[in-house]
Amino acid sequence: MPRPCPTPWPLASLALPLLSSTALAQSVPQPAPAASAVQQVEVQAARPEDLEARRRSTASKIVVGRDEIERYGDSTLGELLKRLPGVTLDGRSGRGGNIRMRGMGGGYTQILLDGEAVRGGLSLDQLDPDQVERIEIIRAPTAETGARAIAGTINVITREGYRKRLNDLKLGLGTEAGRWGGNVSWSRDDRIDEDLTYSASVSLWNARRYDAGSTETSATGEQWLEDSQSDGRRRGVWSNARLQWKLPGGDQLMLMPSAMVAGNDSLRQSQLQVLRDDNGDAPRYATSLTDSDFTHRMLRLNGQWRQNLASGGRIEWRGGVGLNTSQSLSQRQEFKADGQLRRTLDERSDSRERSQHLNAKFSQLLEGDHQLVAGLELEGAQRNEERQTLQDGVPQLKTLGTELSARSLRTAAYVQDEFNLNPNWALSGGLRWEGITTRGQDIGGGDPENRSSVWTPLLHAVWKPDPKGRDQLRISITRSYKAPQLGQLMALPNLSNRYPVPGPNTPTSPDRAGNPNLQPELASGIDIALERYLPAGGLLSANLFHRRISGLMRTLTTLETVPWSDQPRWVARPANVGDAWTTGLELEARGSLRTWWPDAPAVDLRANASLFRSQVDGVPGPDNRLDQQPGATLNAGADWRIAGTPLTVGASVNWTPGYATRLDERQWVSQNRKQSVDAYLLWQIAPWARLRLSAANLAAEDALNRSTSFGETSLSRNETYLSLRSQLELKL
Q: Which residues form the signal peptide (predicted)?
């Protein structure tokens, strides 16, 4: 199958005007800095404004600002988020993965980008951290942010509007497993006139990647081992802008366009050893070669109009449209032991998702210090997916067609009142209604339609024993839900590439398909948190949570009679399987070492630990937990400003223990522990320049994953690698 030209890098020419303008800016003579004291670097446990926003919020919220985002020079947002309390990634170290709060992913964690839902398969790992102004982690749903947040909400705020003139350039270079990569990012904030300001940023990246691993599969009378090596490349360009007009009467109009093209390609080689084959069912090839390419494109235009009212209130209108497309191409060739070609498998998948939203929010400060907020929301999405599989040039799904579609329509209305009951108590009460209609296509030509709605009462309270003190207790009682993603409603199968049709396959190499009859999950929850705020940006916090879930969605593998094969095939597809619960404790501590030891060096400390427990009703124990929820997580780190030098150094440790998950009576998955040790050095060369050196995954170890399904076991081992990066940051 011909591979497309990598799309993003022709766009690299966009960077040329940027670099030329940088050169011109540097050619202008600048006043020489005074030969004064060594440049000092200011690093605090947390910026005062970030902690103050957290303390004043009635709902439990963690605010992560630019200082913490930049600290380790992470190349992906996922590597940054893994250090935050209760946040985990399901991928191996250095490879990102799906972002989870409280060990719950797959839709339990609501991901927002500038307050809007992330759609179309866009991953936060495709977002350059340099594009991010701050991150808000909201542990319990609120009427305003939405109820699709059983585990919580992560709201990523990209560069905000004009505050002061800014013209920053960052140049990065890194290496991993002997492969090199680089990135360039540029940000500019400026004013055109008194009423019009703008912000713009562009990021480009291109990095080579190497991966190696093995998979051992065993069943009754059978055992084989496959070793694989892969060389690939990760590439992309992301740009966004914000235009902000001041209108008469204090009104404000904003336009926020953004665009992204990102992808990866790889060439994977594998060698198969059949160790035992009593039944004659082992794979019949000796080596394989897989050439693959994936590209994701995103276009988004959002607008906002803030209108001040004569009553002192405000109406905020927000609307936007988005388009996400992705294309995946792969060709797998299998060879016999004598080198002859055994078969060729070509796969192509194209998806296109369009989205639209329109929101209206009214806010008014009432008597008694009541802050009233009410709003209406309307959101629609349409997804088309086309998939084609050819074996030796012959279509494998010709009897089913190659294209299916799904659509959803969500409407919501909410009201929320936040007020101080007395100097000791602050309350926030809200009521939200959401209705969602989903329609998918099954492979029989039907269009199953599901309608559901949920009322979500929400109550948040903060109690301060001493109104002027630093201690406070939070309580949140909430109701939330999780809706199926459009991709889960698509019934078009993705065939096992190891076992082609029309023959049989195995439980550990199933076909994969969606379920157009999926229903949403509902959850009731409670959060209780105790916080103590320390001097110099310090904090001690303990948070206890519990969720009761009904209508749990889970992907199960079953043997089915399918229309795409004349023999029964093992198929993995999502289904509603029953009820579940989860509970946990989250601990956090941060502060300056001098808080406890006045004569200590200027060292800031931070640590967080979480304990999780869960159970799926109807699945026998042990290990009948929610999918991929670990039993615990631990993070610890320190930053040291070396006195009398322009240097700051820091390190962090991230650890997640191994665990097993029982899916049903005959299906298990497990993975080993995951640990990551990162370090950085920051050198403030001049007021306008600094150099950041960082090392990630210093204690690299292999990732092990085991799955057992109906008596067949698969054990995968994948290597992880030390990553080194350097980044020059210039303020022009």
A: 1-25
Domain-embedded: residue 2: no
Neighbour-count burial of 33, counting CB atoms closer than 10 A to its CB (0-12 exposed, 13-18 middle, 19+ buried) = exposed
Share of the chain above pLDDT 70, in %: 90
DSSP structural state of residue 162: -
Question: In whole angstroms, what is the distance from residue 613 CA to residue 625 CA?
Answer: 7
Distances (CA, A) of 526 to 151, 541, 629: 11, 17, 19
| Cis peptide leading into residue 502 (ω within 30°) | yes
Token pair recorded at residue 562: 């399918």
Instruction: Note down the domain range covering 384.
Output: 34-239+297-560+567-731
Which one, of 661, 707, 702, lies nearest residue 105 by Cα? 661
Per DSSP bridges, beta strands 341-366 and 314-335 are antiparallel
On whether the CB atoms of residues 580 and 615 are closer than 8 A, the answer is yes
The total number of structural domains that make up the chain: 1
Give the pLDDT confidence score for residue 46 in this predicted structure: 54
Check which CATH number belongs to the domain holding 152 and give it.
2.40.170.20
Give the residue among 185, 135, 195, 184 at the shortest CA–CA distance from 161: 195
Say if 724 falls within a structural domain.
Answer: yes
Query: Is there a domain that residue 284 lies in?
Result: no
pLDDT tens, position by position, 311-354: 889 999 999 999 999 999 999 999 999 999 999 999 999 999 99
Rounded distance, CA 251 to CA 308, Å? 6
Q: What is the mean pLDDT of the chain?
A: 86
Residue 639 falls inside a structural domain:
yes
